[in-house]
Amino acid sequence: MTSPLDPQLGMYSHVNGHPADILDRLTISELCKGWPVYRDASEWKNFRSLFCQEAYVWTSKSKTSSTLPGQWKADIFTYFHLAWSKRQSIDNFIKVSKEGKARGDFIMHRECGTCVDLNPRTRRAVGKMKATITQRFTIPAGGDDDPGVVEPVVFDVDCDCRFHFFCLKEEQPDDGYGLPEWKVRYVKLIYDKDKIVPVDGKTAPTFSKEALRRCPEGYQYLGAAQRMLGHDIDEFLPTIQGPEKGAAHRLWLDMYEKMGQWLDGDDDIDLSSPVLSDKGFANGNGHVHVNGNGNGW
């Protein structure tokens, strides 16, 4: 369930307005759309050009289990469980993405719509891109690991989410024009909901209720599928779904607070994982949220 609560306290330039603001917002939306277009096609030079010299995405590297079947190991890396974890430089993210593709990762993006919040005074913006991330999984045919699987089971996990691109307008001394340009400094996601899609229209794995409950509803199938690959899944990712009808997810609210800080001109926004304590978890602002049902509410 989603919350009726408006998570954004301030209001910024987002539709209409001065022609200069409209052009800025269109430019920023191009940066956002470059993620699915360029990354999926391995256009790494174009992809890198979207970002500042020092830019970061919030990702979590996966661990490969030595006991996994060989074909499973081809799909080990994914950034599906990006978010409340360590920040990673964009150059290292590109490096790891290349390595994942070389191992056989098949991760695609569908951009569903993009809007931009702009603060002309601070020359800051946040691009909000609704997207579906889809990854192909293959459970190999039976062997010593799982003799009950007669034929390979091929399925997708589709995860509806929202990318947030923290952008700024900075000087570009080598661009040949001497004009400032918009670039991306940070990227972080909020997860909405996910599902399993059988590739043949009928065959898909079944996950137990216990396995699904270990992650919030926004990415529970994704989490279960990743655990089958041997991943340690972060159970504290921001989603829009609270523990009860109409309730707001606290990490969702915290994410919007960070967006407001960025738009108002703060230089370094902490999007790292919440710090666990005996009272709950503390966000980057020192606010403590009480532990709930273990799903990061």
Key attributes of the depicted protein:
297 residues, 6-stranded mixed β-sheet, 9 strands, disordered C terminus, 25% helix, globular, Nuclear Transport Factor 2, Chain: A, alpha+beta, 3-stranded antiparallel β-sheet
Task: Give your account of this protein's structure.
It holds the Pfam family SnoaL_4. Residues 21-136 form the SnoaL-like domain. This is SnoaL-like domain-containing protein. The chain is of the alpha+beta class. The chain has one domain (19-289): Nuclear Transport Factor 2, Chain: A, CATH 3.10.450. Helix content is 25%, strand content 28%. It is built from seven helices and nine strands. The chain has helices spanning 19-40, 44-48, 70-73, 90-103, 209-213, 220-228, 250-263, and strands at residues 51-58, 87-89, 107-119, 124-139, 153-170, 181-198, 275-277, 280-282, 288-289. Strands 2-1-6-5-4-3 form a six-stranded mixed β-sheet, sandwiched between helices. A three-stranded antiparallel β-sheet has the order 7-8-9, with no helix packed on it. The longest helix is centred in the N-terminal third of the chain and has 22 residues, at 19-40. The protein is globular, with a radius of gyration of 20 Å.
